[in-house]
Fold:
Amino acid sequence: MENVIEVRDLEKSFQNQLALKKVSFQVKKGETIGFLGPSGSGKTTTIKILTAQLHATAGEVKVFGEPIAKLKDPTYMKRIGILTDNSGLYERLSIYDNLALYCDLYEVEKKRIAEVLATVNLIEESQKIVQKLSKGMKQRVTLARAMLHQPELLFLDEPTSALDPVNTMHIHQGLKKLNQEGTTIFLTTHDMQEAETICDRVAFLHNGEVSLMDTPENIKTQQSTSSISLLLRDNRKVVVQKDEAGAKEIYNYMKVGEIVSIHSDEPTLGDVFVKLTGRKLL
Amino acid sequence: MNEATTVLSTYPINLALIIAGAFIQAAMVAEEKEKNTLRGLLLSPASTLEILIGKSALSGLMTILVIIGSIIFSGYAVPSLLLFSLSILLGLVFYLATGTILGLLSRTVMETSIIGMPVLVIFGMSSMFKPMVENATLINIIELLPNEQLNQIWFGLSDGKGAADILMNLFILFLWVAVSFLLTIVIYKNRRFD
Structure:
């Protein structure tokens, strides 16, 4: 499968401080990739370089097989969608008018507005003035704007950071649908559950370095302990190893009907991140 | 009509160009920057020219309306509509480009008035200060400024001169337009980057 994004030895420094250190990765067509990391880890810097909003200090970045400089070409801009950390919406215009303006810029038919507004659960509010919207609603409008022209590649910088669980679920469903229709998604987040829900692969970014990149399942399996937790009737929690002795212990508890619950100890992505970096995903 | 009278009667037109053309344009562009809407446009497929023309259309129209009003109120008799319109067009493009540059260089709408102050003094008031200046070099520099070119064109036309007589003034004005336009594009394209 062809690579939509290719990054090799990417480095970015701000006033002699290295924000990205030899970052290398590829994103294949149709994938949803999540860059996980705490604030200041280099997630937004990465997305800004990939969308040609920031110059790289060193390294090679290719999008659609072309050097990043080509992204400034209007033909390439039509192929990508970007959700940045600040909304950039026209405050005095309605949601509909904001999207209509971008329909004109991207040469998209106006009927698409209703589709994207349904995806972000804002169809009823289309005539509301942006100035009067909550932060979460503005974020959903910005997301709708990024999806308006059904881009081949969608960059999302913390797409659900200001949203409640219901709207987060709406957005996740919308992104999954968009991905099924062929859009490659590159997102940054510090929400590990979001990464697990929608990403095919995730990368851990810590201090400007990619410390791990794999599918969420593989990461959790590789980092899982070889133990099983049992909850007994007397509320005791017993941890046994996944070996013959452990199996016998479980059998003995089962024989006397002592076990209330049994589950293998699998770490969350957050647990793995803390284990690898010593930092929490905040 | 002598030069002094012409300068006085055309001064409102010059002021309209700089205030309505440059300063309104600067405020509009700075507001787009301040509210991050400019970034959205920069990252869209719209070309630089399309965005710049789109952004200048409203302030351009407003400036033309203010100029028409200024002509009516100052009682300035437009000598040759075609050549006068050509000079206004060149002046308008120059001041809109200057306003766009001011807006792009300012971080906020408020900042445009601070950054724009030297522009107002140089391009707006230098013709008024010229009679008080004694330094020959400074007078030569003032005489090359776009507002002074416009004054010389309008004075020439009022004095019955034709296109051939004001050709040099039009050429110098055109150079100002070309330089300001190129500078606008360079600065605008650089604003794409953080």
